[in-house]
């Protein structure tokens, strides 16, 4: 087999060897000479059996080795052959044929070889023949899903390695090709001739191999066309926060399995994990959305070795990414409260001066407010972007939105209501407002007062809207506008809200736009019949946070109530329910406390249409002076953050004590003088030697206190207040 000896010659040599062995006594005498004769047909069959065994052993070794790269090289060798002349006779000849040897790399282990004879050259080009041979061998050995690269040199010129783009000799690299469905993710699409290649014909071979094959890409690429090595794809994570609700985790090389909707942590040489709790999933590592503890929005990851991605198709996303789930992209309240505000705050904490990718793996449609997300990133990925790839890996990813700016819970475990907002960062909410308006290019709005009605056109309608508008305009003598999310552009609505002294609306998601109201303005929220305003307070809570005055009005007259029991259940319909339950719901005069989100009592009542008792509503609004908002001047300009100012410590405290009184004097906080502000309150605490304390509140920088005890001395502590911002005490106090 190794030396190409013919079957007849092998049979003759074998027969002579066996006879000589018998003559020498190596074989037993009873063996007859006729049994020592070898037939050339037996030799042929034996050769075939040996070749089959060797081939099977070779194939098994190939599969075990996990070959990722094959290299080939060719040369012209003399080959003995037989040609037939015109006379019909055969003649021995030697011809030159292209012989190609294929080996695995690294290591240079021989795999197989093939030739390109004259008949094949006439039928196809050399590149086509090489491609076909390589493809057939790859498929036959089942390595189509693990092969990363093919390289070779089929030229008869020693051209070394040439970059055809720059025409410069460069360092050796593997010839590679990008599949067509990967090229779409590359900013500047590349073609094979632009790659560094061996010789002049490899690009043609690579093209032919690609045409002949349907296997995975030879070389995985990121979105900038750079190669990614598996060592670089070791994952790492650092987490901040003590609970799932408050935790954010920054990952390096976090991967996402698009088929399983599952995140992967690749354990490799460079992996590390800091701040990851034990147990890790109790019940999850972090929340994927801005809503606290919603079990449909949990994040956890699966541990796999870095080798798991060997030969798998993936997209690599460079840069910083924030991965999250939108809670409800169809609802404007949820878009602002749960998504935009949390994105803004998280980005401000971790990437204040950097661009980020927003990655939404919630598998939902874009929704009507998708353009609002584009205000915060030029690179947005949704599940639609990942439909053509099985895996996505992120160079740097942050998971876990900060919920610092959220103020309301929606009733998944207890009836809905405000969160604990005792230490709510109101100034940060103002930062969000200013930043959003800047991104919307709404920083210059005329300061002309108006009244704004946020109308609804499909559900929860005001049935006497024209009458309401007329009486409001007549009563307040201000311009009045009616706008709707269904018919008007969002930026136009916000422009009017910035001017409005009074905003009126039925309860609904559109009221989240009240965040853009001027401090001191009035927000009037209207509720249908049987819906108690005190149980549904997201917008009342918002108004308190932004110093907007708030009033709730409820229809108490069942005659003015128009329900829709014929609609679908999620829009207040009742016909899917038993008759007895339908009657019970209709006769209920107050929606009982309930959980989110399919309570029939709630849905039936909240989707009612209403005839507003305009005179009754005006009685509720008369308490407000719409022309005087000076009590909230620090926030009257939406571009100002004046309310974030805290006064410095009160200094130069002196006292003069007489027999019956104490006179106390102090200076204005020095930093308030730099702002030109004198509208400051002072809180004065006086403690006698019996530990009895009295407190005074004054606008002056002096206080006269009448002595009422026989105390030997008095300790005096003073702090200043500027628009609810309390300065620090003079901690040492003053003895008097």
List the topology elements.
Elements: H1 7-23, H2 40-65, E1 69-84, E2 90-104, E3 109-116, H3 118-123, H4 126-140, E4 149-153, E5 161-163, E6 168-169, H5 180-183, E7 196-198, H6 202-212, E8 236-240, E9 248-257, E10 262-267, E11 272-274, E12 286-287, E13 298-299, E14 301-305, E15 314-324, H7 332-350, E16 357-360, H8 370-374, E17 379-382, E18 391-399, E19 408-409, E20 417-418, H9 426-439, E21 450-455, H10 465-476, E22 480-484, H11 490-499, E23 500-506, E24 522-527, H12 538-545, E25 549-554, E26 561-562, H13 579-587, H14 600-606, E27 609-610, H15 614-621, E28 654-657, E29 661-665, H16 670-674, E30 681-688, E31 693-698, E32 702-706, E33 714-722, E34 725-726, E35 734-735
Parallel strand pairs: 1-4, 8-11, 10-14, 15-16, 15-18, 16-17, 21-22, 21-23, 23-24, 24-25
Antiparallel strand pairs: 1-2, 2-3, 5-6, 5-7, 8-9, 9-10, 9-18, 12-13, 19-20, 26-27, 28-29, 29-32, 30-31, 30-33, 33-34, 33-35
Helix pairs in contact: 1-2, 4-6
Tell me what the structure shows.
The protein is α/β, with parallel strands linked by helices. It has five domains: 7-64, no CATH class; 66-213, no CATH class; 226-406, no CATH class; 457-622, no CATH class; 651-735, Immunoglobulin-like (Sandwich). Helix content is 24%, strand content 26%. It has 16 helices and 35 strands. The strands form nine sheets. Strands 8, 9, 10, 11, 14, 15, 16, 17 and 18 form a nine-stranded mixed sheet that branches. Strands 22-21-23-24-25 form a five-stranded parallel sheet, sandwiched between helices. Strands 30, 31, 33, 34 and 35 form a five-stranded antiparallel sheet that branches. 30% of the residues are buried. The model is unreliable at 155-204, 207-227 and 635-640 (pLDDT under 50). It is found in: Membrane. Its main location: membrane. Residues 418-523 form the Glycosyltransferase 61 catalytic domain. Keywords: Glycoprotein, Glycosyltransferase, Membrane, Transferase, Transmembrane, Transmembrane helix.
């Amino acid at each position: 087999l190794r030396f190409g000896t013919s079957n007849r010659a092998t049979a003759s040599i074998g027969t002579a060897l066996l006879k000589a062995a018998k003559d020498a006594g190596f074989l037993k005498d009873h063996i007859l000479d006729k049994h020592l004769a070898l037939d050339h047909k037996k030799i042929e069959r034996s050769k075939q059996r040996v070749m089959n065994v060797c081939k099977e052993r070779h194939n098994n070794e190939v599969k075990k080795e996990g070959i990722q790269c094959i290299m080939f090289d060719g040369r012209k060798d003399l080959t003995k052959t037989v040609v037939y002349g015109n006379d019909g006779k055969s003649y021995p000849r030697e011809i030159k044929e292209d012989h190609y040897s294929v080996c695995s790399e690294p290591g240079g282990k021989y795999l197989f070889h093939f030739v390109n004879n004259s008949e094949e050259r006439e039928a196809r080009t050399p590149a086509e023949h090489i491609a076909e041979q390589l493809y057939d061998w790859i498929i036959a050995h089942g390595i189509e899903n693990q092969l990363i690269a093919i390289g070779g040199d089929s030229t008869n010129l020693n051209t070394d390695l040439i970059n055809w783009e720059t025409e410069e000799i460069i360092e050796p690299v593997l010839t590679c090709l990008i599949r067509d469905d990967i090229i779409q993710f590359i900013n500047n699409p590349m073609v094979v001739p632009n790659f560094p290649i061996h010789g002049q014909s490899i690009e043609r071979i690579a093209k032919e191999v690609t045409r002949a094959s349907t296997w995975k890409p030879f070389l995985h690429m990121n979105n900038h066309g750079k190669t990614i090595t598996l060592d670089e794809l070791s994952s790492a994570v650092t987490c901040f926060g003590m609970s799932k609700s408050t935790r954010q985790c920054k990952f390096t090389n976090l991967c996402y399995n698009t088929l399983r909707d599952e995140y992967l942590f690749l354990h490799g040489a460079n992996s590390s994990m800091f701040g990851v709790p034990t147990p890790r999933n109790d019940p999850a590592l972090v929340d994927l959305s801005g809503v606290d503890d919603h079990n449909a929005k949990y994040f956890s990851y699966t541990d796999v070795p870095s080798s798991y991605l060997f030969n798998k198709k993936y997209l690599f996303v460079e840069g910083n990414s924030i991965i999250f789930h939108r809670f409800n992209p169809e609802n404007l309240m949820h878009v602002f409260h749960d998504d935009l505000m949390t994105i803004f705050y998280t980005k401000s904490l971790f990437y204040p001066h950097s661009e980020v990718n927003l990655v939404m793996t919630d598998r939902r449609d874009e929704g009507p407010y998708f353009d609002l997300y584009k205000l915060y990133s030029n690179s947005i990925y949704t599940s639609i972007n990942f439909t053509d790839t099985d895996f996505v890996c992120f160079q740097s990813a942050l998971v876990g939105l900060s919920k610092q700016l959220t103020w309301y819970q929606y009733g998944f475990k207890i009836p809905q209501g405000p969160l604990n907002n005792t230490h709510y960062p109101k100034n940060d909410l103002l930062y969000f407002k200013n930043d959003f308006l800047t991104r919307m290019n709404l920083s210059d709005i005329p300061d002309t007062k108006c009244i704004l009605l946020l109308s609804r056109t499909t559900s929860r309608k005001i049935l006497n809207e024209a009458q309401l508008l007329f009486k409001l305009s007549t009563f307040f003598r201000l311009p009045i506008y009616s706008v709707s999310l269904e018919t008007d552009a969002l930026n136009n609505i916000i422009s009017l809200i910035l001017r409005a002294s009074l905003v009126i609306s039925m309860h609904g998601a559109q009221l989240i736009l009240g965040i853009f109201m001027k401090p001191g303005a009035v927000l009037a929220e209207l509720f249908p019949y049987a819906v108690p305003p005190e149980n549904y307070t997201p917008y009342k809570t918002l108004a308190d946070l932004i110093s907007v005055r708030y009033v709730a009005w409820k229809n108490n007259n069942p005659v003015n109530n128009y329900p829709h029991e014929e609609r679908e259940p999620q829009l207040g319909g009742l016909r899917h329910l038993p008759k007895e339950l339908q009657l019970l719901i209709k006769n209920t005069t107050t929606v009982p406390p309930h959980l989110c989100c399919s309570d029939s009592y709630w849905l039936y009542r909240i989707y009612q249409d209403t005839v507003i008792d305009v005179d009754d509503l005006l009685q509720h609004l008369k308490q407000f002076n719409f022309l005087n908002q000076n009590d909230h001047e620090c926030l009257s300009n939406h571009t100002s953050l004046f309310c974030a100012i805290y006064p410095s410590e009160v200094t130069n405290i002196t006292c003069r004590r007489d027999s019956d009184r104490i006179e106390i004097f102090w200076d204005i906080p020095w930093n308030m003088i730099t702002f030109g502000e004198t509208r400051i309150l002072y809180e004065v605490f006086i403690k006698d030697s019996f530990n009895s304390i009295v407190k005074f509140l004054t606008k002056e920088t002096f206080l006269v206190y009448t002595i009422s005890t026989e105390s030997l001395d008095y300790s005096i502590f003073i702090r200043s207040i500027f628009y609810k911002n309390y300065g620090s005490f003079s901690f040492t106090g003053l003895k008097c």
